[in-house]
Write a structure and sequence with these properties.
There is one protein chain. The protein has 175 residues and is α+β, with helices and mostly antiparallel strands. The chain has one domain (41-174). It is built from seven helices and six strands. α5 (112-126) runs parallel beside α7.
């Protein structure tokens, strides 16, 4: 019986091994390669990036400013990318959310909802998400974003973030 269980787990182990190998084969650029390959970028050392006077920190990871990046922000292993032009007119709380969301990918992996929750948790703990108004600003921004291959629809993301935000606030109130 034990032998049969081992055999039945073999296909799962093979699939996991293959997926791990494929992920390892994808060649993400290092921060220095990215800077060499991408024009008009600026490197900001870890813990030196500021958003409207607020420190935007993602551990020891630097931030690359790229006004031609195709989104508001991005995350490659070991560094964060922010698009100052795309973010220019956004409220500070939304800019901080975008940065913290991308930082969340550094610590939580590729999952969008996990990165969203990381950002919400960080915003509350670090003080840039202080009230419902800030959460409303984030949701107003997120709701407009359509679903794609990796991102759930904006309204769904907002709804899940609101549930998480309220739960964190309730926990805080009990302390």
């Amino acid at each position: 019986m034990r032998h049969m269980r081992s055999i039945s787990l073999l296909p799962t182990a093979v699939i996991i091994s293959l997926c791990t190998m494929l992920i390892g084969w994808y060649d993400y650029p290092t921060v220095h390669e990215y800077l060499l390959e991408t024009k008009n970028t600026k490197l900001v050392a870890a813990a030196q990036y500021k958003i409207d006077g607020h420190s935007a920190i993602c551990g020891r990871r630097p931030t690359v400013l790229n006004s031609n990046f195709d989104s508001w922000g991005g995350s490659y292993p070991g560094f964060i990318i922010m698009n100052p032009r795309a973010n220019r007119k956004l409220p500070t709380t939304v800019k901080m959310f975008i940065y913290a969301h991308e930082c969340g990918h550094q610590f939580q992996g590729a999952g969008e909802l996990r990165a969203d929750n990381f950002a919400i948790r960080r915003g509350i703990l670090w003080g840039w998400l202080q009230n419902d108004k800030g959460m409303d600003q984030i949701c107003r921004f997120i709701r407009k974003i359509p679903a794609d291959a990796v991102h759930p629809p904006g309204p769904e993301r907002c709804q899940k973030m609101m549930v998480y935000y309220k739960a964190l606030r309730q926990r805080q109130a009990k302390k």
